[in-house]
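Q&A log
Question type: sequence-to-structure
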Amino acid sequence: MTRVALLNRRADLVGETRNPERRKFLYQISRSNYEKEWGKGYRRPGVGSRILAFLLRHIPKVGPATALDFKVPSRQAEDMYIKSVNDTMEDYNNLLRQVANHDLKLKAMDCDTGRETTPGEYSLTDDTYAKLLDEHSKHDFAQLPDTLRANILDFYAHAPTEKMQKEKSWKRAQRELLKLKEPAPGQTGAAGGTR
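Response status: OK
Response body:
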């Protein structure tokens, strides 16, 4: 189907941009790794692909066939994509260097929105923390590691938004947080104190 799409949209395809970002993008993966993953051979579109491309070009793009009427990304969109891949690889390599130096510091960032993880910022995050709190409260937080305890308390330390307070799970979360803040047996002082 990719070959068919390429045959149909050959005239619309954006020409290659010669810029440093593209060169950096192309050299992120070695030729041998690329060939190991995707193979060495390139198969040109055959007769079957050409016939299918001809038929699909003339099908009205309505109903289920609207998926066939895809838009080819503009040069600007392609450049943005290439830059985002390069930035991702650069960030990943920086994190790997931090791991090698035993100095990894990850930000509490929502990967869906790109913003800092805070209550009310993203409903899926709120739901996940509520479920996490609920699951561990069923076992009186007995198996909860100190770092996760601190993370949950830190998440809920920020004043909840009105939106969160309206959710059904908020009252239960408040009760469970009070339980979580209680010192575990054998602890002294506040939660997270010395054992």
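Response note: The chain is about 55% helix and 0% strand.
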